[in-house]
Amino acid sequence: MKRLLMSSALLLVGGIAQAAEITILREVDSNNYDPHKTTSRAASEVLFMMGDTLVSLAPDMQTIDTGVAESWSVSEDGTTYTFNLRQDVQFCDGKPMTAADVVYSINRWVDPETKSPVAWRAGEVDSVTALDDYTVEYKLTAPFSELLYQLTQSFGTIIDQANVEALGDDFGVTGFNGTGPFCWESWAPRDQMVITRHDEYAWGAGFHANTGPASMDRITWQIVPEENTRTVGVITGQTQVTQYVPYIALEQLKASPGVEVVQSDLAFWTYYMGFKIDKETVSDPAVRRAINLAVDQAAMSEDLFFGVVQPAYSYVSQEALDWNAGLDDKLLKFDPAQANAILDEAGWEMGDDGVRGKDGVRLAPTAYVFAGSTWGKISEAVQAYLREIGVDMQIQAFDATVAWGKLATQEFDMYGMSFPYVSSGDALNLYFRSQNAPSPNRMNWIDDKTDALLLAGATSVTDEGRAEAYGEVLEMVHDAAVWLPLYHEPMVIAQSTDLETVVPHNIYGAGLYKGLDLKYKE
Amino acid sequence: MIDQILRRLLISIPVLFGVLFLGFGLLVLVPGDPAIVMAGPTATPEIVAAIRTEMGLDDPVLVQFGTYLGRVLQGDLGRSLISNKTVISELGAAIGPTAELMFACLIWSVPLGIGLGTLAAVSRGSIIDRAIMAISVAGVSLPIFFICLMMIQYLGVQWRLLPFIGRGGPLWTLEGIRHIALPALSLGAIFIGPVARMTRSSVLEVLKLDHVRTARAKGLSETRVILRHGLRNALIPVVTLIGLQVGYLLGGAVVTESIFSFPGIGRLAVGAILSSDFPLAQGTILVLALGFILINMIVDILYSLLDPRVQT
After folding, report:
1. Maximal CA-CA distance, chain B
2. ipTM value of the model?
3. How many domains is chain B built from?
4. Which of A35, A294, A440, B106 is deepest in the core (most CB within 10 A)?
């Protein structure tokens, strides 16, 4: 009788215990959740939670930690990686994950038929084979020193072949069977994505305070396009977390009871304007250097972004792996007098209309930017600064659906862009390889030496060799002033004080990463 | 009655055709390339060109429209370029919430509008009349987005009475009612004004007629005279107005759903247009047009029920 009463009491308590649920607000949705077919940040945010990668990246953005691989080794020539997999990893449907799943995932990623826009991130794959159920051999045709960093990204998520084949075109649209801390429940495009806890999950990397299972039973990713609604949603407790709050609202959020704002010290999302260096208005390095000296990034950070962002003078964060510290003292910073002097010396004479010219070329570069408030205010501020040195930048703004096409043309002299990265090499290989012109190498930076150094960096088998090669490329492109860096954006997360303070991550802009740190206070 | 419905249905066909053509034409004219949307940001111009050819986007616009029309007639609205879901399934998921929003809006605003209009009419010239008319003018004049933001500011943020993000569930659940309340209040606020004003003027007209004077002479109570002999006859133009206004409400729903992140047809249309998801955008335009036509047809039928002369 006593036992019966106790059982009943336990059942009652269990029955009335509230599930730990959370709503996360964000601005836009992804086009799908197939890791090989989308490059959107919105997809990565959820894929990191629903899936796992071979290795993972610590919040310091430098340390590679375990993923579904508990250890790995690299051959001396840097072309063969051997991954030893954990033997306790399961998919959400309960099926054990084995080497065959890893082999399938990587092969699908690099298969030309998949048409993955980011297949290059997997390196020049020769073969990926299962040596046994829990050992994978990953062979490259040439060393790729970035490989482990690239494998931490959501594109390297381990997927289930049976699930992919069963769903066909609907894989990542109507379902997704992963091994992450959370499982797919439902997706209503442009409205909400619901994921539920993967109860068996116990293989989180050591840098997480909680290695699994997750504390949250259910997470709803809710799309709220209107930024004011997102802001007051946090203030009123209708949502518990969002990283999509306007900077203007941060002070209000910090002052609001029940809201905590956390910000990472690192900033691995960089905004810049690039120059198409073979266009006559910006082909002169003197012009590009002068433009760099004319813009006050510190003032822009304060006035436009309330001091939240870090003024950028470097093309990647100075905290990024393989940043060339020798450039720290050489970076171009606001000095309009010097900018004018450089242009005078280079023969760009000031016209009656306040715009400089030389040999019949008027210094009025056309800049393509994305339509919207962020690039609107950035480009207008740059335009105003450039007027001060006699450069009449013409802004043309395009909606994102049009902009990507326009930015693949040779029509413009300057363009605005922002991008996430995990290391210097990640950014340099994407933007500065000659073969990547005209997009994403929109500068038309065609240079054999750069290509040789990038190849040397990518194929280096030592950290020092890689850093040296990438460091030299960084020096070359900074000297040539092919970009106007504007700011590095840190990860800022507004969260309810009901939650334990989250650790903001910078990987691909997915601030909550695996979601393992999301937990209500006791 | 059936003849009338059939006639209305036949008239609707060219209207629908016109809407489809205009919608298609507008989407062709707006900047944005579906091939780029499909190809993704890192695609080369060659890939984009191949997709354009595959999608038939290099064909003349009329040929493209003909192909589209042929598919629509077979019930195939295509797949969303963004989610790869069928347009019909996306529309199906969004119609329910919008219908709920319309219902939740009309269920309080129509009776209140008619009630206020009638009260204003019987209190003509008094402070009550002026106050009601002032509220009506405000409702007609204020833009819907402003009303939505005020609702969020006061009922949502300051007094924390109601949620303002998303749809909590179907309308028959408590969370569903709580979440739909603010969007429905906002949308209804712009509806009350025109209904109250039309009711007021219509009731005033009817109250001058002989049959009302006769009813009074027979000794009926003023309430009975107004409700039975005045309001009933005054409702005919009000029903017409409601029908037309419900059509415009669909437009208001686009703004309301966007601000409150309510997953209905309006928000779907905005999202589809902004992301150049042409098949979905065309689908939402088609559904909104069908909704407008259907509402007008229902109004016509109601009109003939209220006033038998219309049938002849």
Report:
1. 86
2. 0.78
3. 1
4. A35
